[in-house]
């Protein structure tokens, strides 16, 4: 092609346009061996970069995947803890309701109440026992034994919490989760969920509580399917005391290992939940809905990176194999470069000859095409000028004749000629003479007809809903004449003062007698759109409409006969509908007819 011939590789100064005799350094073109060397170097560099990028990205994906799994695990654990605490709180409320209004002596000696509470507790395997303590902290009833053994909780944190809130007059029915303790009756590690008991006057009556078994939660955390052996922790909000840790890290079950500084900072920075990461671990945490506890999942990065290394190892082997293959190809290329140089010289000669021939051919073709385009534009311009002259002569002649009917006929003929002239005006303006922007033509035509109608009197308004469409030049003249005839037909006949005028003009003595509203604007709707079936040209009005027995195919009007003839020439269908008020004409040009007129 023109301008695409590249200077070929050659050795020394062969083919150069300058020699040593010129007194200047000859231009040395790069050798093929040098190009192969550079390509090999770029290939090795690209391979190294890709290997590093893939390694870094896969490592990041492995860490992000572990982080997302930790986040998902925390979400599941938080939902599980919320359901667990909700169920435990329901049992506490049940115990409070069952003991409400009864003297503590009656509560302490009621075997029936003990049986009911024990039956409810047995349905919840994560609970150890239900406890009822009076206002002094003395244990009055427990499902752990009947009658209740002696125990006093007045020094326990949960009892002091409710007692203090009662004294301050707040937190009347606020549940509370206590720290992890060793039960004085059961001698087991546990923590309590409690509620305050109040007399009818609102005074402090004691507390109702249930002990939650940490081993149940530890067992559930063990079964959670999270890779890389995470550490799962349940902590209290605020103090961040550890309630449950799996796996355990301390010898004493009542004193699990405290939270690390990283985990504390992560919870304090995002109290509602989030993910934090440092060089050694990933910490995902979430606040349990409606409860002052957090669930934490901590993953060590070391096992995650070990898994990543096992995954990336095959790719590293592939990169090494690719590097060896690239080295072998480079050696082979160097060996072939010498033989290719001889062939290249011959190809250079042939390319130069072929390029010169192509440049000459392309230049001649472009000149012919430019001349043809100029002639086509000039022809269309002259045709437009000639048609405008004819239209102007008809307009002048219409003013000179004395017969009004003949004058109207000449004016209509002039408008038809002008409609064709407008098509040719577009043809010498557009770049592709095979298609014209019919929407622009239709808009200009309607505005010109609107101005002409207003100059003759009346409040005329043409409403246009026109989609941008290009139509083949072979169809443009017929479509333009159809649009001109339909709009002019609406202007002439749709808004006559009396329907009798319409009847006499279009159909004869059987026309209707309806009359349009006086004082209203004469509105004509013009639409152009293309749907899945056809291109549609629509012209409608809100005038007197057509009589019920009107047959447009047998009309003697020149305009209707012209519309019928042009529609048949285009292979289009014409639909006429009474819209009450008014009438709507629809020209539908099927796609098969429309596309067949397009140039190849």
Automatic annotation (TrEMBL):
Keywords: ATP-binding, Kinase, Membrane, Nucleotide-binding, Phosphoprotein, Transferase, Transmembrane, Transmembrane helix. Pfam families: HATPase_c, HisKA_2. Its EC number is 2.7.13.3. The keyword Amino-acid biosynthesis does not apply. Signal peptide: none annotated. Gene3D superfamilies: Histidine kinase-like ATPase, C-terminal domain, PAS domain. GO terms for molecular function: ATP binding; protein histidine kinase activity. SUPFAM superfamilies: ATPase domain of HSP90 chaperone/DNA topoisomerase II/histidine kinase. It is an enzyme of class 2 (transferase). The chain crosses the membrane at residues 35-56, 315-334. Residues 474-593 form the Histidine kinase/HSP90-like ATPase domain. Residues 1-24 are annotated as: Disordered. It comes from the Bacteria. It catalyses: ATP + protein L-histidine = ADP + protein N-phospho-L-histidine. CDD domains: PDC1_DGC_like. This is histidine kinase. It comes from Azospirillum lipoferum.
